[in-house]
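Subject: Protein record for review, amino acid sequence with backbone structure tokens
Concerning: The relation between a protein's sequence and the shape of its backbone.
How to read it: Take the token row as a discrete description of the fold.
Enclosed: The protein record, placed directly beneath this head.
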Amino acid sequence: MSELTRLIRKSPFFIVTLLILLKAQLFRITVFSNFSPLGLLIDLMSILLIASLIELIPFRRTRRVLYGLYWLLATLALLGATVYFRYFGSVATYTTLFEVGQLPAVKNSVKSLITPVEGLYFVDLVVMAAVWLFRRGRTRRNTWSYSFEPQRGPFRLPYLAAISLLVVSLLTSVFVLRASAGTANELKRAEQVGFANYQASILWKDVAENEKPAIAMKDIPAAMKAAERSTAITRPGTFSTMSGATPAYFGSEKGKNLIVVQLEATQNFVIGLKVDGQEITPVMNSLAGESFYFPQVFQQIGQGNTSDAEFTSNTSIYPTAAIAMSKGYSDRDLPSLPKLLKAQGYTTMTLHPNEVTFWDRDKLYPALGFDTYYDKPAFTNDHFNNFGASDEELYRVGLEKIQEAADQNKPFYAQFVSLSSHHPFEIPEDKQELKLPESLEGTQLGHYLQAIHYTDKALGTLIQGLKDKGLWDKTVLVLYGDHFGLQPKDNDPEEVSAKLGINYHSQISRFNIPLIVHAPGQEGKQVERTGGQVDILPTVANLLGLSWVEDQFIPFGRDLLNTDRNVIGMRYYLPTGSFYNDDILFVPGTGFDDGTAYSLKTHEKVEDFSQYKSDYEYILEWMKLSDEYVKQLPKRK
């Protein structure tokens, strides 16, 4: 055996570097569907950066332990990022480590995302275990001795060689990061710089942004107006001093109660859908016909998922996508819908049958200004799913609490966060009322339709309860989906389209959520304006006759009943710079020119989207202003 072969086989420096490099390429192929010599070189340099640092440590035992930890942490990080990508469609960052504590509560959802590919990350462990067992019977040597200690004495890189590798790998990584600095698309940037360098770039960006705000709070309103002028979007008077013409429907429901129901994993395609003649959502179908129904509304959540939807609908602020808003900003004095309504004498409450500590809602709800929250202990556990109580139980308890509020002769705002249609959509057999065709039986799509059908039926009990209590005509009811339900790995768009007889698009349909606003004083109307979860607060505020001045409240959404044109941004599940306007969905490449656009009406690819460049520039600036705004909000006392 040559000396070089011996070193490669016996040196922990070479072995660990090679193993992590192979896993980094597996990650590239799985996530980016791409392998290139340049990507291989970039990953090698970032891996060598850490390995050469370890090699400089003079103590052999310490080096051996650190190499083992390096291998283990790299393996777990790449494995976790692969599973994470399957659900979120984005590259996990170091900030997602803050959410590890949430995993036990969603273990069934996580299990469903695991595929045989993940086993490849531990092939080396299996091989080492097999070698250990083989050698144990012959030499009694342990696996570390075999793998990392050469039989003719320990090998270590010369000090000068380790220093040289450290400098070269560091300079290469810095050059790569600087070259990709102009790429807003997180997926593209992660592909360009590699997983490890991407983490470093996110950390550096967070540190830099936290040191000094780019825009002072007092200058944000003027910057928002300038951004709007650039893309011909104007804001109705509701958003500022109420000067000028009164917006349509302003105050038409003034003084009425408000109930907002956030529907778990509910996509808009189920509204009006029939399977073998059966309506999937008969209750919502009927409600949409007698309400303001907005069929072109899209999710805008970030790391916080459902809790981010609660945050955004109540504040009209974009999630930053860097951290769950409930964890990163629940220590702030958040301008919110509950606070606006409390100023008008409303009692406010929120109800959710999960533990209130999940996503730090015990901190988020006070920050939003809710008077009271009701979580898991408030409900009888009927063991509907892994989370506990069913939606029917949620609404049963909610109706009791609503009645108590109504008895005080004060208007109320009650937020319901449903849970029965949570992924993986497996509900009790006695609640599965749809007769599905054989093509849907046992599929995630079939499970999803059953769960949504139950969610819709349970919603009917809330509506009937309001009618029975004489509150229906005194209450504005808002329904919206928090985020998508169907997982892309389990639901090919062409198959979904064929099985359901609809035009299902992997991004447009997936992120399209329903928004229904039932206003007792108004006739039903379908409003085709594109919108997002940031637009819920301004739209509801207009109906209830709420107004404010800019130095007290700055919403980043619009009243969809008084907007001639709208552009909304989406990030995290799509790259930063992605937007929906009234015509297209746009997803950037490294920038605007190499991006991709799809028609919202036909779902077909739009070849010439040059006319929308101002929308792209606008939404980048708009979300940046939203980030600056929320970061500078004062801390709560």
User: Anything to note?
Assistant: The chain has two domains: 3-211, 217-631. The chain has 22 helices and 16 strands. Residues 43 and 192 are 10 Å apart (CA to CA).
